[in-house]
Amino acid sequence: MSKNWELAYLNNNTPWDKGKPSPGIREWLTRNRLLGKGLVLGCGYGYDVRLLAQYNKSVVGIDISMTAIRAANSFEKVSNEIYHNCDFFSNLPFEEHQFDWVVEHTFFCAIEKPLRNLYVLNLIRNLKPKGRFLAIFFLKTSTNSESEEGPPYKIKRENIISYFDPYFEVLDTCIPTKSYNCRPYGSEIIYYFQLK
Length: 196
Ligand SMILES: C[S@@+](CC[C@H](N)C(=O)[O-])C[C@H]1O[C@@H](n2cnc3c(N)ncnc32)[C@H](O)[C@@H]1O
Prior knowledge:
Largest sheet: 7 strands, mixed
Strand order of the largest sheet: 3-2-1-4-5-7-6
Oligomer: single chain
Strand content: 15-25%
Distance between the termini: 35 Å
CATH class: Alpha Beta
Bound molecules: S-adenosylmethionine
CATH superfamily: Vaccinia Virus protein VP39
Shape: globular
Radius of gyration: 16 Å
Order of helices and strands: HHEHEHEEHEHEE
Number of domains: 1
CATH architecture: 3-Layer(aba) Sandwich
CATH topology: Rossmann fold
């Protein structure tokens, strides 16, 4: 059965929420810039949206949980960032191919595995031609692969590529040196893709 995200937020049962943006994305942004209009998937309380809004005037965060979006909206604005309560898989309130870039942090690992192909197709549907996709994935490694249960559904590095390679070229990939304390070095990987 798929997870009830709204209930998790209502019950304050949000262990993924670390009260700050992804340190790996923050680190990546010290060396790189995302240009134009951007979309952040499964943004939760919006920490990554506000981080990105420090560099971009137009950043949109989406989340299926109304409670998360309400909370995100209660933070002081950094720029013109906005949030939408919607389901990435069914009712996006945007016209197609609107975004220059999409950012992903702990959303791909949150969805049920059978939705992964649809995830990639929806991603493409939202990006402009040659659009960019920055993702920080939760890696399945030899030391943390004990459980198949999730979320989070961790993924092996070679499997990440199998989903994205048909449509995207890899512009950059790295293991972030900065992370939350509970995520040891090597448990996350960054990919920066561009639509072929
Ligand atoms: C593991 S949490 C990560 C939240 C945020 N990225 C963070 O790191 O704090 C996954 C998020 O995806 C949202 N989510 C799950 N399914 C979704 C869907 N179909 N469409 C939009 N958001 C969804 C959940 O409500 C939740 O906020």
